[in-house]
Amino acid sequence: MDQVRDGEGYDLSALHGLSNPEAAFILDLLNERLEGAGANFRDVDAMAALEIPPARMAIKRLAAHPSAEIRLRAVRYLAERGDEAAATREIVRLLRAPVTDIGADALMTMAEAHPTAAVRAALLECALDGADHLRVHAAALALYLAGRAAESFDWNYRPLFLEFGEADRAVRVKAMASLHALMG
Asked: Residues 147, 139: contact at Cβ < 8 Å?
């Protein structure tokens, strides 16, 4: 319980050494958990640690899970195994969603790790019309990925980024013009 409270989750190293029957049993438990309301990204991490073919197939299925958090974690593992397209599709999908429950940190970390042309375009779309809690971060990351900022949230541009958090779309449109000018 102390580990869970500290955000550590499962003992992933213990899952690496399981026999195939043990891993299959744990996989069944994780699949069951992932169907319920208490599922979270740590369940996906545990599934990936099992390293058996049925677990890899289950992770592919999780790319269509109802939870954005689960989908994003699943496509992270798919990308690590060479399926970059799955990661790009999900990142773009979440950035374009006007309402999403995904955390800004998780999504922006994935977007930064997969800076495809489609992701860069979706960041700009998100900055203008995306979910309220993502717009500021999307603008900041777009500027960084364009090579015009020193870090993914460059505090030198904070006043501009904050304009993307405004409810008034006209303010955001004006901020977008400034962002485009900075980006060249």
From this structure: no
